[in-house]
Amino acid sequence: MIQISKPIITEKDVQDVSDVLRSGMIVQGPKVRELEEAFCKYCNVKFAVAVNSGTAALHAALNALGVGFGDEVITSPFTFVATANAILMCGATPVFADIDENTFCIDPLEVNKKITKKTRVILPVSLYGLPYDKKIDEIAKTNSLKVLDDAAQSIGSKRDGIVAGSFGDVTAFSLYATKNIMCGEGGMITTNDEEYAEYCKMFRHHGQSEKVRYEYYGLGYNYRMTDLHAAIGINQLSNIENYSLKRINNANILTAGLRGIKGIECPEIPDNCRHVFHQYTIRVTKDFSMNRDQLKEYLQSKEIGTAIYYPKPLHLYKHLAHSGCKIGDFPVAEKTSGEVLSLPVHPSLDDSDLDFIIQSIKSI
Ligand SMILES: *Cc1c(COP(=O)(O)O)cnc(C)c1O
After folding, report:
1. How far is the CA of 286 from the centre of ligand 1 (A)?
2. Which numbered atom of ligand 1 lies nearest the CA of 153?
3. pLDDT of residue 281
4. Could you tell me the pTM of the whole model?
5. Which numbered atom of ligand 1 lies nearest the CA of 175?
6. DSSP 3-state of 48
7. How far away, in angstroms, is 323 Cα from ligand 1 center?
8. Alpha-carbon distance 115 to 82, whole Å?
9. What's the confidence (pLDDT) of residue 211?
10. Res 78 pLDDT > 70
11. pLDDT by residue (tens digit) across 22-71?
12. How confident is the model at residue 309 (pLDDT cuts 50, 70, 90)?
């Protein structure tokens, strides 16, 4: 079976986690600090704050940006549910803007239409490993709004040569087991703003300042990362360029093999971007001889694992459907969810795996 994703775990990880267990420093200790410093360096940012999931990173970041009851946050309907749930967790309303069908990210023109007096933050998702459109930053500036980048899938991606982590005011990463780098469960917030970073540090620790214990500056949560997780994260981050280059190379091989097949649209990469292919996602259009679900089943029968990210846009889920959202409101996201299929692209694939995927699709 060719799996859709596969975490890479080394003997060094096993050793380093054992060392943490033996050290007795289990939570929010030296390994967490080391991971935060490594993120600052890699992402070229002043501050990095570790938390225990990408969802926690989004929740903390939204609070740091002042999002609360009654506020609106503009985001994508075509993303993992955690993006929108983090907005609900603040008591705020997710306001969706439709996506661009070539990049799968929110369309700046649609974002513009959704701005109201209540809008506080724009939360674009850098989906599948591709940074969001920088026009969104200009729109935010013009309207005095803040930008939070959901970069859960795009660590190591670049826009105009700048690595992800500082595109918006704050960036949220995930270190969940299937992401480009992982530590089991984990998240990281990066920013160049000291106030936001300090806020997130308190937020992850019940509102306590790291300087004075049992002094609470506001509502906080237990979002602390353990050193067991951080030890794995450090090793993963030290290998990130290898992993990203392998993903990019695998994606190039897939595109070279699949381009030109009628009804299969390969991912497009804007000229100014480095796409790190968390997912390699094709669109299966009406011109192909099978529909998307049939192709998925066929590949499964050939022992090729694929996945649909995401089968249903978020505005069609009951808990997220605000002000009577209904089918037809976000036509691009709706059409896209019926066409997308993610193929294996992870770093552990070899050339024969990729060739088998290509030949299997071609033979149809
Ligand atoms: C994975 C993911 C998250 C949530 O991260 P967790 O670490 O699983 O909490 C949020 N947004 C997107 C786009 C994701 O892919």
Report:
1. 31
2. 15
3. 98
4. 0.97
5. 7
6. strand
7. 25
8. 22
9. 80
10. yes
11. 999 999 999 999 999 999 999 999 999 999 999 999 999 999 999 999 99
12. very high
Task: Say how far apart CA 223 and CA 76 lie, in whole Å.
Answer: 25
List, chain by chain if needed, residues with CB within 6 Å of any ligand 1 atom: 53-55, 79-80, 82-83, 125, 150, 152-153, 174, 176, 187
pLDDT above 90: residue 209: no
What gap in Å lies between CA 150 and CA 145, rounded to an integer? Answer: 16
Q: Give me ligand 1 centre to Cα 182, in Å.
A: 12
Answer yes or no: are the C-beta atoms of 104 and 128 closer than 8 Å.
Answer: yes
Q: How far apart are CA 38 and CA 288, in angstroms?
A: 45
In which order are the strands placed within the sheet that holds 264-265? 264-265, 280-284, 340-343
Any idea which residue has 């997912």 for tokens? 279
Q: Are 338 and 292 in contact (CB under 8 A)?
A: yes
d(CA 339, CA 61): 32
| Atom number in ligand 1 closest to CA 178 | 1
Q: How confident is the model at residue 210 (pLDDT cuts 50, 70, 90)?
A: confident
Nearest CA to ligand 1 atom 14: 152
Name the percent of the chain lying above pLDDT 70: 100
Q: Please enumerate in sequence order all residues whose Cβ is within 8 A of that of 215, keeping only pairs 6 or more positions apart, or say none.
A: 208, 209
Q: Which atom of ligand 1 is nearest the CA belonging to 278?
A: 15
Ligand 1 mean position, distance from CA 59 (Å): 11
| Residue 323, pLDDT above cutoff 70 | no
Burial (CB < 10 A; 0-12, 13-18, 19+), residue 134, is middle
